[in-house]
Amino acid sequence: MKAQEKGMVFIKEGSFVPLYGAVSKNPVTVNSFYIDIYPVTNSEFLEFVKKNPSYQKSKIKGIFADKSYLSYWTNDFDFGNAKPKSPVTSVSWFAAKKYCECQGKRLATMDEWEYVAMADTKKIDARTKKEFNEYILSWYEKSRTYENEIGKTFKNYWGVYDMHGLVWEWTSDFNSIFLSGESRKDKSTDKNLFCGSGSVNASDLMDYAAFMRYAFRGSLKAQYSTRNLGFRCASTTKPKI
């Protein structure tokens, strides 16, 4: 099954003030785009690795994925006890990016992801709602949610599922939030990429739910793969059916 078969939704252009990473409190504009309704599943990723052998568990090069890559899969073509419709995880940024490209898509930017993720069932921006943040924080405390199937969380304002409550997700520019000004020339070092830098550019330290996302992203490197980290695709133009 191709990713197109499960659908994408249109996200209308808008602007918002990022709660973290904003040097100033000026809003950023997000141009209109499309995003997958659900994260990519085990069965979908299996079809991808069948067609792209260099991304199979036993064949992927170390520069593109660490040793945890698809760690829960029994072999190149068997995702073990995981459910076909559960999100694929333990996938590196390189593999996620390649998957999206093979679908004629791309990874969402961090601003695009946050823009969609700030919506609850009725509001485009629900970040000030206590119950919304409590829901996100309660998920952070749960274990093994990655074993759940896609589509079991709430459908948000845009018609997107699982932005919270299932898995963390890769973005195309996952660690760019920590690289600005003088730090850009040092981006090969770790000091600006890890969690300790998470609060440097925070515009609202009280929003712990968002802080955790940014801190987690900042702890990643592109070849990392962890059991609670998956992805979904986006597209600038309307996808072909």
Helix/strand-derived class? alpha+beta
> Strand percentage, roughly?
5-15%
Estimate percent helicity. 10-25%
Report mean pLDDT, rounded to a whole number. 85
Biggest sheet, open or closed, and with what strands and sense? 4 strands, antiparallel
Order of helices and strands: HEEEEHHEHHEHEE
Spans of at least 5 consecutive residues with low confidence:
1-5, 179-206
**Number of helical stretches of at least 4 residues:** 6
Task: Count all strands and give the number.
Answer: 8
Described by the principal axes of the CA atoms, the overall outline is globular
Provide the spatial order of strands within the biggest beta sheet. Answer: 1-4-8-5
Radius of gyration based on Cα positions: 17 Å
**End-to-end gap:** 12 Å
Describe the structure.
The chain has 241 residues and is of the alpha+beta class. Helix content is 22%, strand content 10%. The chain has 6 helices and 8 strands, in the order αββββααβααβαββ. It has helices at 3-6, 42-51, 93-102, 110-117, 130-140, 208-218; strands at residues 8-11, 14-16, 28-30, 33-36, 106-107, 168-169, 229-230, 233-235. The chain has a 4-stranded antiparallel β-sheet with strand order 1-4-8-5. The chain has a two-stranded antiparallel ribbon with strand order 2-3. Strands 6-7 form a two-stranded parallel ribbon. β6 (168-169), α6 (208-218) and β7 (229-230) form a beta-alpha-beta unit. The chain is globular, with a radius of gyration of 17 Å. The two termini are 12 Å apart.
